Amino acid sequence: CIFKSFSFLGGFFVTVHVSDSSSCLHGMRCGDGNCVWDSEWCDGVKNCPAGQDEANCVRVRGSNFLLEVYWTETKEWRQVCSEGWSDQQGKASCHDIGYTREKICICNTNCISACIVVTVQCTDCGNRENSSEASGSQLASVGSWPWQVSLHVAGSHRCGGAIISPRWLITAAHCVSRTSSPADWAVYVGIVDPLGPVFNPAHAVSEIITHEGYNSQTQQNDVALMKLSDPLNTKASSKIRPVCLPNAGLNMTDPGKSWVTYYGPTANRGENSSSLYLKEAPVSLIPSAECNSSEAYSGRISQEMLCATKIEAGATMCNPDSGGPLVSHMDGLWWLMGEGVWGEHCNGQNKPGVYTSIRHHLDWIYYQMQVKMTC
User: Fold this and answer.
1) Is 275 annotated as catalytic?
2) Using one digit for the tens of pLDDT, what is the confidence trace for 318-367?
3) Of 174, 211, 345, 361, which residue is the catalytic one?
4) Domains 146-241+362-371 and 258-359 alike in fold
5) Is 322 an annotated catalytic residue?
6) GO MF terms on file (predicted)?
7) Is 174 a catalytic residue?
8) Dihedral angle computed from the Cα positions of residues 30, 164, 64 and 8, in that order, rounded to the nearest 10 degrees
9) Which one of 193, 222, 321, 363 is the catalytic residue?
10) Is the pTM of this model over 0.90?
11) Options 144, 165, 322, 357, the catalytic residue
12) CB proximity list for 108: less than 8 A, separation 6 or greater
């Protein structure tokens, strides 16, 4: 443990410390391409023009949201002791990460290794009330996946997405790359059937941020954020809630059963094929090596992608929808592990579904929330 009496903690950022030393022999690269020494990161002095060297020095870790500080001298993360800690400091830290002040901020203390340490949770995320979790693919019920959104263009569903805070949604970059004007989009929350947009309000989008490294050929960095013009009222209904972003150090060795949700047609409702319903299906995450085998995608899966396959034999999990969430249930909460990118399991080849890894892009997500935050 360390005490939180460091100068750079006055307005710290709660995010993931990520360095890119590909062009720096003995240091790390700033956003403008210049290099600074390793010892200059997280030392309380801004050496990068935009302050990147001081922006990623604090993070939230694990399923219990432990607050940690990066210690430059030993190049390690250390927990923050709670002596002198206040709820106001917790709210300030959530504000710095990109969560606006009207959001829930929960600050607690836990006794670990003889040190009372700080835990910070900036949103009431990852909870759901209606959770039947049947064994196979089926239609989802209202409120069963409260973070699921339907993204519409010109009155029609274009892609799925997930609520990560009352202001922010996450989806696939390929969904928005050709329709990048926020005015063209409408967001619907809490809907599961074709009548949902009729009886639920449309939410306007104020900004769309596509990952600058998105490659439409390889599908790398296929992630985008949408900022809503007005925050969702997540306290008014259990049908609208954010999903948790996967904190650093989250135990992924045994994530248990994961689920994908997506909008698609159903044949047993007597509806036109264009009528879309929210569907849910249990899946199992599979190793990248297996997904990259010659029987699957032959090396096309990068380290920033996840692969998932249906659990039960004979299940139909043809998912033509993009941007939909892949979530896992761990330690009592639901975590957003991926969002739908592509897959060849709809063309009869029975190959795994491919998803962008949210954990891989966590630093990018938090950075965008910080710089685009509305006070």
Assistant:
1) no
2) 555 788 899 999 988 999 999 988 765 555 566 788 999 999 999 899 88
3) 174
4) yes
5) yes
6) serine-type endopeptidase activity
7) yes
8) 30
9) 222
10) no
11) 322
12) 118, 119
